[in-house]
């Protein structure tokens, strides 16, 4: 019985060096297979490697004319984080409206819990749902959730404080955004995992661009609008209007992207791989699907743990520590805004660097992710250490390094993980990796409270 033909996606027409490296095969850290090896068992063993290789003819791969596909995936990455950024950046406005509510904590808890539950469901039933439908539904839900705040402000709240029915509706909109995020983020990352590496890099860089966009909007609104009730209201409405506009662009881009020749080419490769697997194993359902899913999780778990620890470290420091625990007599209330902007800019730089140089050694990348735990005692020193450590320069440098390492290592692991499995399972792998990421966000948010304790 011959092993099934599985087609591996090369990152670009000029990737012969990577092809040769993967054909030699390599072991990922902690026993996870990270390269490409032939299935010498003839496909009979469930423990055989998921990934075999049959590199497509590079001369037949369509070009990404004008980098349209790259731009579209970059925009999609920007889009699916904007709704959360809009809600959390407008927290001053919501705190003014609802002074007796712990707005930021409630928003974070609702968003993460709802998103995590939905992601678990999506992972379990990924084989029964279509990513095209999930993404379009999710983008539509984002628009609805974002419309709630400005529409309610104009028709019901009208700048008045203490109307807590409005708060409950806003929390429901945050929960709706959590559902949409699970549908869109997991599926976008999953679909990018089926394409060459540059498209995953585009998505990841787009998420960083979202933070940069919101940071500059925050600087603009603070500089232009007064910080009274009227100014806060105008600022909040601006965040949501910009986010809605970007979301509409994302809907258009996503529904155009699959028609581009380069995207159609790789979608056809996936369809071929899916059909060959059906002929070999039958329809993935029941015990066969669960076995395949656990095989995927086992194969990428250390990539996932690397991403998880990245975001545990990052969220334990940023933004809570940055906004609440460090102060500047010179910069005053601009200090936290500039630190957040610095983090976001360097996060974007880090996520863009993988377009120039991709660290292909997963063991080093995962080790570096755990090495970021050193940021915790360093930032602690900025609170309780020598006097120089408690000044603006060390805090700013550390914050920028936190963003740079977060961006680069996230991008590396997100790019490498889907390439360890068969093409037809790359989407599920992307969703699994996002699940690890969300767990890291949740744990990091909890750990951040230890700064207060």
Care to describe what's here?
The chain is an all-alpha fold and 453 residues long. It has a single domain (67-451), classed as Growth Hormone, Chain: A (Up-down Bundle). 70% of the residues lie in helices and 0% in strands. The chain is built from 16 helices and no strands. The protein is globular and about 65 Å long. One of its GO terms (cellular component) is plasma membrane. It is a multi-pass membrane protein. The chain crosses the membrane at residues 70-94, 106-126, 132-151, 163-184, 199-217, 238-257, 302-322, 334-358, 364-383, 395-417, 429-452.
Structural key phrases:
globular, transmembrane, transmembrane helix, 0% strand, 16 helices, Growth Hormone, Chain: A, mainly alpha, 453 residues
Secondary-structure blueprint:
Layout: H1 16-24, H2 68-89, H3 91-97, H4 103-124, H5 131-157, H6 164-193, H7 197-224, H8 229-257, H9 261-281, H10 286-317, H11 320-324, H12 334-353, H13 362-371, H14 375-384, H15 392-416, H16 426-447
Helix pairs in contact: 2-6, 2-7, 2-8, 3-8, 4-6, 4-16, 5-6, 5-8, 6-7, 6-16, 7-8, 7-12, 7-15, 10-13, 10-15, 10-16, 12-15, 13-15, 14-15
């Amino acid at each position: 019985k011959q092993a099934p033909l599985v087609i591996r996606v090369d990152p670009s027409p000029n990737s012969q060096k990577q092809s040769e490296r993967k054909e030699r095969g390599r072991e990922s850290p902690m026993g996870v297979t990270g390269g490409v090896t032939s299935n010498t068992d003839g496909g009979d063993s469930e423990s055989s490697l998921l990934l075999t290789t049959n590199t497509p003819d590079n001369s037949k791969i369509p070009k990404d004319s004008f980098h349209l596909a790259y731009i579209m995936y970059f925009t999609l990455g920007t889009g699916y984080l904007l709704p959360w950024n809009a809600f959390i950046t407008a927290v001053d406005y919501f705190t003014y409206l609802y002074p007796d509510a712990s707005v930021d904590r409630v928003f974070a808890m609702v968003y993460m819990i709802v998103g995590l539950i939905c992601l678990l469901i999506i992972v379990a039933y990924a084989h029964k749902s279509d990513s095209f439908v999930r993404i379009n539904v999710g983008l539509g839900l984002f628009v609805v959730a974002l419309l709630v705040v400005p529409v309610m402000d104009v028709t019901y709240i009208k700048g008045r404080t203490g109307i807590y029915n409005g708060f409950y509706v806003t929390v429901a909109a945050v929960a709706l955004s959590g559902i949409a995020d699970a549908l869109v983020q997991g599926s976008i990352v999953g679909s990018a995992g089926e394409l060459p590496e540059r498209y995953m890099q585009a998505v990841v860089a787009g998420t960083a661009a979202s933070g940069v966009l919101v940071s500059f909007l925050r600087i603009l609104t603070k500089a232009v609008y007064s910080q009274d009730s009227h100014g806060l209201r105008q600022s909040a409405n601006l965040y949501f209007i910009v986010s809605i506009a970007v979301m509409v662009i994302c809907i258009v881009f996503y529904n155009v992207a699959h028609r581009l020749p380069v995207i159609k080419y790789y979608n056809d490769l996936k369809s071929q791989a899916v059909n060959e697997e059906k002929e070999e194993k039958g329809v993935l359902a029941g015990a066969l699907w669960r076995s395949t899913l656990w095989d995927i999780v086992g194969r990428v778990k250390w990539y996932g743990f690397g991403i998880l620890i990245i975001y545990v470290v990052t969220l334990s420091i940023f933004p809570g520590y940055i906004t609440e625990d460090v102060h500047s007599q010179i910069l005053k209330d601009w200090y936290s805004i500039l630190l957040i902007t610095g983090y976001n800019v360097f996060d974007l730089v880090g996520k863009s660097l993988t377009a120039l140089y991709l660290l292909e050694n997963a063991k080093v990348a995962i080790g570096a992710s755990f090495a970021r735990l050193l940021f915790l005692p360093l930032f602690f020193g900025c609170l309780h250490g020598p006097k120089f450590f408690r000044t603006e320069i060390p805090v700013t440098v550390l914050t920028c390094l936190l963003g740079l390492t977060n961006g680069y290592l996230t991008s590396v692991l997100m790019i490498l993980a889907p390439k360890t499995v068969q093409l037809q399972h790359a989407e599920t792998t992307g969703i699994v990796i996002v699940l690890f990421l969300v767990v890291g966000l949740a744990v990091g948010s909890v750990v951040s409270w230890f700064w207060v304790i």
